[in-house]
Design a protein that fits this description.
By secondary structure, the protein is of the alpha+beta class. The protein has one domain: Immunoglobulin-like (Sandwich), CATH 2.60.40. A hairpin with a 2-residue loop joins β4 and β5. α1 runs antiparallel to α2. The N terminus is likely disordered.
Amino acid sequence: MKALLTAVAAVVFATSAAAGTVTLSNYSHQDLTGFGTDFDDIYTLNLGNDTWVSGLLATSAQLAGLPGIDVQSVTLRRLGSGVNWAETVAIDWDVADGGIEKWALTPVQLAAGQWQLEVKGVSYADKTGNGYSASVELPEPASVALAALALAGAGLASARRRKA
């Protein structure tokens, strides 16, 4: 039991460590037409190794008030395949003229290489300072190795217990 608790603690510590957070934002979206202006922002992420990635995106206004940005899709793409982010807080734009939207990418393993983060939407704001900020969490390789070691230890402890 002690070995299992140690393994669980190691997994918790290993998965909470992160090599870094990549922060991407664009607060320059503005609609001068009064009917909404489409935007399609693309950012490049280079992953050196296969790794687990997670992320969050939220709309906001740098000036006072609610943001007038409707994010319609957030996708990580590589070589024709894509991983879609899920909208966790939505606004009914038929009823409201502004509000905060949130999108999330649950932890997913991505292959090494160049990935593109694409954010599509519509700006309804007639002033600058409306947009979004996204953060992408990249775990450090040592923490992934520690998590694998902890899981192996848990498996060995379980096998030993069955034999006894």
